[in-house]
Amino acid sequence: MPCAKLTSVVFTQLAVHRVLRKLKVTSAGGTDGILIPPIFLKHLSSQLSATLAYLYQLFFDTTFMPPVWLIANITPIFKKGDAALPTNYRPISLTCSICKIIESIVKDQIVSYLLTHGLLSKEQHAFIAKHSTITNLLECVHDWALSLHNRVPQDVIYFDFSHAFDCVDHSKVCIKVQSFGIDGLLLSWICAFLSNRTQRVVVEGFTSNWVNVISGVPQVSVLGPIFFLLYVDYITLAYPGTVRYKSLYITLFHRQKTVAKKRNRNIYSTVKISSTVSKYQTA
């Protein structure tokens, strides 16, 4: 448990105005009931920022979550293959535009806290400023090049968490978030944000019935990726110096001391790692 704590978030007019100015005007309006488009919020950022800052602080301090913030419209986007198979569609969630603003402010303060106190593993390349697939690849290639230069055999194993965002248990997300020193009012607000969520599918004007979301971090939300990042960060403790993260994919490698022992150690390591990841994903 880290000594540092983050227990609250302050919503200033300046912070709200900064987020409003960064909104993408081409984004969909979400589920605001009256479908408030981001272009409206952006063009009136100077007029709305003070009022929204007051409301956000009030809602946060009372852990009140407006019901419209907890619903999502799911639009299936076809990927490839047989169009009749649901598995060939990628679900895109449309959530409340007003909620995404408060999410952005909370996310910025959480990330700033994590980076300031060095709470995230250095192997993490996802959802962090100045980190990406490129930095992940550069670091991996550097490590592999060192092994080649020293003539040390090395195994590389890739893991892809299937439906990772959908399988995360809400209560365990809150426990994991708390383990990073995020507590108090902020933790209560995060738990409220994850609870009592519902969603429905919308296709060409037709809608399904509302269903409860009992697991998973909200897709296409601002905070969802940060929650997942914290949820998987512990893997580097089990395999220090051998893990590289990028979004839902994990690259794990280890060096072999002798070629003679390579096969047995490779089998043992693969089974051990697979067992750990399997238990982690289904826990």
What does this structure look like?
It contains eleven helices and eight strands. Helix 1 crosses helix 3 and helix 7 runs antiparallel to helix 8. The two termini are 21 Å apart. Strands 1, 2, 4, 5 and 6 form a five-stranded mixed β-sheet that branches. The protein has 283 residues and is an alpha+beta fold. A hairpin with a 2-residue loop joins strand 4 and strand 5.
Provide the residue-averaged pLDDT: 79
Q: Considering DSSP H and I runs of 4 or more, what fraction of the residues is helical?
A: 40-55%
Number of helices, counting only DSSP H or I runs of 4 residues or more: 11
Order of helices and strands: HHHEEHHEHHHEEEHHEEH
Brief rundown of the structure:
With 283 residues, the chain is α+β, with helices and mostly antiparallel strands.
What are the key terms here?
globular; single chain; 5-stranded mixed sheet; 45% helix; alpha+beta; 8 strands; 3-stranded antiparallel sheet; 283 residues
Topology:
Layout: H1 13-21, H2 38-43, H3 45-61, E1 71-78, E2 89-94, H4 97-116, H5 133-149, E3 154-160, H6 164-167, H7 170-179, H8 184-194, E4 197-203, E5 206-207, E6 211-213, H9 224-232, H10 235-238, E7 243-246, E8 249-255, H11 262-282
